[in-house]
């Protein structure tokens, strides 16, 4: 029995989570014996339940789970959330920290089914298939001291050798199962943390002689992502650069609505979530694209439970349905969230 903590969250979170669970149930015929879902309040829903973005019972459930599915949180749906003792976003940071989810994995691919819908020219994005591995629990988002003064402010970017080493291993291990090419992104011509980053990643690469390593400065990498996205296999980078580059890369498929992500710790539980936010502008209307959440569930099957076949069946069904033109509004169609979900389930069962 696999214990899955379900954090539907806010905005479109509950709608797309319903879709993902229904698809999981369709993909695993004996799901009642295979999966045990434990739904817990989180984010704004956590505040409404017990005053905090991350209620203690929610954290306890996550710590006890074999995997976590997260919809999306926050989005200012309710202004009282911002005044809570712990806001939805603080709840998410607290959860990442408590579970030590230091490695954020974002696969970016443009399957043929999506080619026509991409905002970037077909000739450029055709065949795009890479993974951004972003360090998630250190760097300038967490470094101290930090201070906002009246007419000045400062933050601290801080990395240790240990932190860089473990994220580099993640990247090379992923590359070993793919095309064996790692692009490490930094700003080593300017930043001390980047000089250390480059040195440590190079040292780790010696343990992976089957993989090639290249270094690229973040500014030129940002250009290459839109000019030659097919030339990447695995990109590994620090927290801030990874945040920006992975959002940039998410434009390539044409919508945020098809992109899943995974966050891993060294040995503990992993968390799977769409890369987009809670999309309050379209919440409650049954028009959100649930593909991002369904594909996140497929990633969970693959990476946490080794259920490669089931994961592939779900992915194939999602892209077959898109290929048939049954798509939600973000992809220019008029399928409802529930219609798209039903079509995916029919494909899986067929
Ligand atoms: P956050 O700060 O939480 O990352 P954000 O400000 O980046 O959120 P999102 O919630 O990701 O914003 O939404 C950005 C835009 O993309 C919105 O217009 C939203 O409606 C749209 N969007 C996001 N996810 C989906 C989805 N699954 N289906 C359709 N549209 C979506
Ligand atoms: Mg965002």
From TrEMBL:
Pfam families, per the entry: Iso_dh
Phylogenetic lineage: Bacteria, Bacillati, Bacillota, Bacilli, Lactobacillales
Broad EC category: oxidoreductase
Name of the coding gene: leuB
Origin superkingdom: Bacteria
Cofactors demanded by this protein: Mg(2+); Mn(2+)
Family membership: Belongs to the isocitrate and isopropylmalate dehydrogenases family. LeuB type 1 subfamily.
Organism of provenance: Enterococcus saigonensis
Residues of the Isopropylmalate dehydrogenase-like domain: 3-344
Residues that bind Mg(2+): 219, 243, 247
Main location: cytoplasm
Protein's job: Catalyzes the oxidation of 3-carboxy-2-hydroxy-4-methylpentanoate (3-isopropylmalate) to 3-carboxy-4-methyl-2-oxopentanoate. The product decarboxylates to 4-methyl-2 oxopentanoate.
Protein's name according to its UniProt entry: 3-isopropylmalate dehydrogenase
Residues the record lists as binding substrate: 96, 106, 134, 219
Biological-process GO terms, alphabetical: L-leucine biosynthetic process
């Amino acid at each position: 029995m696999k214990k899955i903590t379900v954090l539907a969250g806010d905005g479109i979170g509950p709608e797309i989570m319903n879709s993902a669970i229904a698809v999981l149930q369709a993909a695993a015929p004996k799901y009642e014996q295979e999966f045990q879902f434990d739904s817990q309040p989180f984010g704004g829903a956590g505040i409404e339940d017990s005053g905090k973005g991350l209620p203690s019972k929610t954290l306890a459930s996550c710590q006890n789970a074999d995997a976590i599915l997260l919809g999306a949180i926050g989005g200012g749906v309710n202004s009282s959330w911002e005044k809570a003792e712990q806001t939805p976003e603080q709840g998410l940071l607290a959860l990442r920290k408590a579970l030590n989810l230091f490695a954020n994995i974002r696969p970016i691919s443009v399957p043929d089914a999506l080619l026509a819908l991409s905002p970037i020219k077909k000739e450029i994005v055709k065949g795009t298939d890479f993974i951004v591995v972003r360090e998630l629990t250190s760097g300038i988002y967490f470094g101290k001291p930090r201070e906002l003064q009246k007419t000045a402010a400062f933050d601290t970017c801080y990395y240790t050798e240990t932190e860089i080493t473990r994220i580099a291993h993640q990247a090379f291990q992923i590359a070993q199962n793919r095309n064996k090419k790692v692009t490490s992104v930094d700003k080593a011509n300017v930043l001390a943390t980047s000089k250390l980053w480059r040195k440590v990643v190079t040292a780790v690469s010696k343990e992976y002689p089957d993989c090639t390593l290249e270094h690229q400065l973040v500014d030129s990498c940002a250009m290459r992502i839109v000019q030659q996205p097919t030339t990447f296999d695995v990109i590994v980078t620090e927290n801030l650069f990874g945040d920006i580059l992975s959002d940039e890369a998410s434009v390539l498929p044409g919508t945020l609505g098809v992109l899943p992500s995974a966050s891993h710790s060294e040995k503990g539980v992993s968390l799977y979530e769409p890369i987009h936010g809670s999309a309050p502008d379209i919440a409650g209307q049954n028009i959100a694209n649930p593909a991002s959440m369904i594909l996140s569930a497929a990633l969970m099957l693959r990476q946490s439970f080794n259920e490669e076949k089931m994961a592939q069946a779900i992915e194939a069904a999602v892209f077959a349905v898109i290929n048939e033109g049954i798509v939600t509004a973000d992809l220019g169609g008029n399928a409802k969230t529930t219609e798209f979900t039903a079509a995916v389930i029919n494909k899986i069962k067929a």
